């Protein structure tokens, strides 16, 4: 990237409304994602490696009360997705919520939401690639973890450089693996809970209520676990980013929105209910990997191998979407002159290749630094960017309050299947719930430092956006 002065010159004269999706040379992002791609992209965004492994930490934090944490988060996700769907059908754009923030509050809001969203993805790609590398290293010990991780990043980068259709196809088939295994896990688990699985006695309510009660860590444990649930659900918004490259954005968004409720309910609450019913919530095995612990409890042969394959598929899917979402957001920022213009370049295949290469290169740099010189500071940075999920969703709700009123005031009725229920009351309720949860995170000692640092990052990026906006509005000397 250029120096500060050069960047300021590039950003100086951006407009309030988003520009066209192409570049000065006339190249355009490809609109070739099909409805089936969009459906699987929305599922893949909602169901990642966080469900298979990360949910174990949430169970340790809240006990069986993790179901409350995930139910609360699922309810928020459904409404937030409804907000995004309503705005996306009217204004389908690769910049998605960054564009909506810009339209609702001005350039500074689009700048802040876009950069805050983008900055976490290279770190996330690094973490996922290392985790995937460890899985493959277990299969092929001769290959070092760092080499496997680099190769994984190279694969998903190449897929995204090819075409958006290639990204959609890869996501479609990889997500099918995750969906099939989760459905099988829930089905077998329910049979075991009912006492119908040979060799596995029915657990009754002992694990749910008999080990310190349903809320053994109190409500504070639920709030802390909600933060982990928020991070697990982050990615659901990718489908609205992809709307700018869909053949029929409105139809695809309506379909995804209609089905997200049962998807998040079945995949998250269904699978976690099986775990907390069958196993003690405070066992070390559940904390390490709840799915693996449950499969071991059920005595399923080859369960660890199957789970590792599914975990690998989940991580591959997550990395694929991380490259896609981060590059499109960086492209949109550059297009709207909130980032250096070189990131708005588009290849003949319709891919923002400079944004893809820059994001992937940064992920590789993070990977090399973490493998050669691992530090606690890196983990802290990942946690901080994880807390910015709250910031992204708060920004979406705030933008929806403004744009929703504008649309209804102008007589534009939201499309069927996308309108937020009970507007503006429900939007206000979600906004206040998100603000309240974040405030509690600041109060609680276990989450205070990361929450405050994430807030400081948000304030700093917002101030930078305001500075750029005022430079744009200042009369020439």
* Mean pLDDT across every amino acid position: 82
Measured between the Cα atoms of the first and last residue, the distance is 27 Å
Q: Which spans of ≥5 residues are poorly predicted at pLDDT below 50?
A: 1-26
Over all CA atoms, what is the radius of gyration?
A: 22 Å
DSSP helix count? 19
Choose one word for the global shape.
globular
Main location: membrane
Family: Belongs to the amino acid-polyamine-organocation (APC) superfamily. Amino acid transporter (AAT) (TC 2.A.3.1) family.
Membrane topology: Multi-pass membrane protein
Domain Amino acid permease/ SLC12A: 37-448
Task: Produce the secondary structure layout.
Blueprint: H1 4-11, H2 35-46, H3 49-62, H4 66-90, H5 96-105, H6 107-139, H7 145-162, H8 164-193, H9 206-209, H10 218-233, H11 238-242, H12 249-278, H13 284-288, H14 290-297, H15 303-335, H16 353-372, H17 376-409, H18 425-443, H19 445-473
Helix pairs in contact: 2-8, 2-12, 3-10, 4-10, 4-12, 4-17, 4-18, 5-6, 5-17, 6-7, 6-15, 6-16, 6-17, 6-19, 7-8, 7-15, 7-16, 8-12, 8-15, 12-14, 15-16, 17-18, 17-19, 18-19
Subcellular location: Membrane
Transmembrane segments: 38-59, 65-85, 97-118, 138-161, 173-197, 217-239, 260-281, 301-319, 351-372, 384-404, 425-445, 451-468
Membrane topology: Multi-pass membrane protein
In short:
InterPro entries: AA-permease/SLC12A_dom, Amino_acid_permease_CS. The chain has 477 residues and is mainly alpha-helical. It has 19 helices and no strands.
Core attributes:
477 residues, mainly alpha, Amino acid/polyamine transporter I, 74% helix, globular, disordered N terminus, Amino acid permease/ SLC12A domain-containing protein, Amino_acid_permease_CS, transmembrane, transmembrane helix, transport
């Amino acid at each position: 990237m250029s120096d500060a002065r050069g960047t300021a010159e590039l950003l100086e004269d951006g407009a309030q409304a988003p520009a066209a999706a192409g570049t000065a040379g006339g190249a355009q992002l490809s609109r070739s994602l099909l409805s089936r791609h969009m459906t699987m992209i929305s599922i893949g965004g909602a169901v990642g490696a966080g469900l298979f492994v990360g949910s174990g930490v949430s169970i340790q934090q809240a006990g069986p009360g993790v179901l409350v944490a995930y139910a609360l988060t699922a309810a928020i996700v459904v409404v937030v997705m409804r907000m995004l769907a309503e705005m996306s059908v009217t204004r389908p754009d690769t910049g998605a919520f960054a564009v909506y923030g810009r339209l609702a509050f001005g350039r500074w809001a689009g700048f802040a939401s876009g950069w805050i969203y983008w900055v976490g993805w290279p770190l996330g790609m690094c973490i996922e690639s290392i985790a995937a590398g460890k899985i493959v290293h277990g299969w092929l010990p001769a290959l070092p973890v760092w080499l496997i991780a680099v190769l994984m990043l190279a694969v998903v980068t190449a897929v995204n450089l090819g075409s958006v259709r290639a990204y959609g196809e890869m996501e479609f088939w990889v997500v099918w693996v995750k969906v099939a295994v989760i459905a099988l896990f829930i089905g077998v688990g329910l049979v075991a809970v009912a006492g119908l699985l040979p060799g596995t006695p029915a657990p009754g309510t002992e694990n749910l209520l008999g080990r310190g009660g349903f809320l053994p860590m109190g409500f504070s444990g639920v709030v802390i676990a909600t933060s982990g649930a928020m991070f697990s659900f982050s990615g659901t918004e990718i489908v609205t980013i992809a709307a700018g490259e869909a053949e029929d954005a409105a139809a695809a968004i309506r379909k995804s929105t209609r089905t997200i409720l049962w998807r998040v309910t079945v995949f998250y609450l269904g699978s976690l209910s099986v775990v907390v019913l069958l196993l003690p919530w405070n066992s070390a095995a559940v904390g390490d990997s709840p799915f693996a612990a449950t499969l071991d409890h059920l005595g399923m042969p080859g369960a660890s191998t199957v789970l590792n394959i599914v975990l690998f598929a989940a991580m591959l899917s997550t990395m694929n979407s991380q490259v896609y979402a981060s590059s499109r957001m960086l492209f949109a920022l550059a297009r709207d002159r909130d980032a250096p213009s070189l990131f708005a370049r588009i290849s003949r295949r319709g891919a923002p290749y400079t944004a893809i290469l820059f994001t992937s290169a940064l992920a590789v740099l993070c990977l090399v630094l973490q493998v050669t010189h691992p530090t606690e500071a890196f983990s802290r940075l990942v946690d901080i960017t994880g807390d910015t999920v709250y910031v992204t969703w708060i920004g979406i709700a705030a933008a929806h309050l403004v744009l929703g009123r504008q649309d209804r005031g102008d007589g534009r009725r939201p499309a069927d299947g996308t309108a937020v229920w009970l507007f503006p009351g429900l939007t206000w309720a979600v906004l206040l719930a998100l603000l309240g949860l974040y405030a509690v995170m600041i109060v609680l000692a276990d989450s205070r430092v990361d929450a405050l640092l994430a807030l400081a990052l948000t304030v700093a990026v917002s101030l930078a956006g305001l500075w750029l906006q005022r430079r744009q509005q200042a009369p020439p000397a």
